[in-house]
Write a structure and sequence with these properties.
375 residues; six-stranded mixed sheet; Rossmann fold; five-stranded parallel sheet; alpha/beta
């Protein structure tokens, strides 16, 4: 385990924490949207170094975690078919479907391959022209440009044996859905810096204005997160609600416009079901009609499948910021990374996985949250 004392900018981080303590006069609930930020918060004990008035709420910022069960089941069915090469990022292989997972399909003889880019799957399709190659396209706006380029290249090469099982989702509609909920406790957001590197942050401005919530585009280092919290608290304390950019070294206001143009050519906006949350209008990307031939759901006749989520897993409440992982009765007992009930326990960005790794009571030692820090 790594703690804040081992962080290279620990002294500066403590200075930000001290400044947050100085400016905070009342309780505030701030949601970090990204699962990568959640892992940094839990790993370095950032939440427990903040004043008690500041509550950090973990949001639906893990694309693996929000991929709906029915899409996992579709992936399992396709991967089990003879003549199919199923390509996926590695963190999808242990995500449980209704009865099994992709790793078990691979162990049972299915040709399931881990790739590091959608373009790797295009190369596989070129090398295996007699077999259907399917790429499991999961991710937020961050990874969508690479998926779009894979489709563009496959079309250019005339690869009829290449297709996508698409589960790309969009962050702003999910934030709006959370804010519109009667159970919402969020008063400010730390927005995901990598998403905004692609998309910019102009689309967050109407959300901040409509719901009167500050939104701070934030990076992933502990120093980024402390500074992002400070900027958010300063807005809350002064009654402001605007979009600010902490992650200026990477994010520009309008983002990567060539990437956005390619995404608009390949995809169109669709409603998307989020695991444990439900369907959110205009929150997903699907292949446009011009590229419908690359849609694996259509190709394999799976477009109309529907599956109910398991009742025991509370990942939906975790993803909505309503509960913390340790409030689940199955946490660390019936649900572990080796035998997960839901994706939040097995994904590298899942909140339950972060708590299991860094906050288990049986973990021993003086982990994050147990370190005495003086300001």
């Amino acid at each position: 385990m790594k703690y804040l004392d081992e962080y290279r900018d620990a002294d500066t981080a403590r200075q930000y924490a001290g400044e947050i303590r100085r400016v905070t006069t009342r309780p505030w609930n701030i949601m970090e949207v990204c699962g990568g930020q959640t892992h940094a918060i839990v790993k370095f004990g950032i939440d427990e170094l903040l004043p008690k008035e500041i509550t950090l709420i973990h949001g639906p910022g893990c694309p693996v975690c929000v991929t709906p069960l029915e899409l996992i089941d579709k992936a399992l069915e396709i991967a089990s078919r003879r003549g199919v090469i199923f390509c996926s990022f590695g963190d999808m292989l242990r995500v449980p479907g209704s009865t099994t997972d992709l790793l078990s399909v691979k162990a049972g003889g299915g040709d399931v391959r881990i790739v590091y880019s959608p373009l790797d799957a295009v190369k596989v399709a070129e090398q295996e022209p007699a077999r259907d190659v399917v790429f499991f396209a999961v991710g937020f706006e961050t990874t969508a440009p690479a998926t779009a380029m894979a489709v563009f290249q496959a079309a250019k090469k005339g690869l009829r044996n290449f297709s996508l099982l698409v589960s790309h989702v969009l962050v702003p509609p999910a934030m709006e859905a959370l804010l519109a909920s009667p159970d919402c406790r969020v008063q400010g957001f730390l927005a995901a810096g990598h998403v905004c590197t692609v998309m910019g942050f102009t689309e967050y401005e109407p959300i901040a204005a409509k719901y009167r919530v500050p939104i701070v585009v934030t990076g992933f280092e502990p120093l980024d997160i402390f500074q992002g919290v400070l900027m958010c608290v300063q807005q809350l304390e002064s009654g402001r609600a605007t979009v600010e950019n902490q992650y200026a070294r990477s994010v520009r206001q309008r983002g990567n416009q060539p990437a956005q143009r390619l995404m608009r050519e390949i995809f169109h906006i669709v409603p998307r079901k989020w695991r444990g949350v439900g369907e959110i209008p205009r929150s997903g990307m699907g292949l446009s009609e011009a590229y419908a031939a690359f849609d694996a759901e259509r190709k394999f006749g799976l477009a109309d499948r529907r599956v109910e989520e398991p009742a025991e897993c509370i990942s939906g409440q975790v993803l909505q910021g309503l509960k913390k992982p340790r409030e689940c009765a199955a946490f660390g007992t019936r649900c572990t990374p080796e035998h997960p009930l839901g994706a939040t326990m097995v994904s590298s960005e899942g909140a339950c996985a972060a708590y299991y790794r860094y906050r288990r009571p049986s973990g021993g030692g003086s982990g994050p949250g147990m370190t005495n820090v003086e300001f």
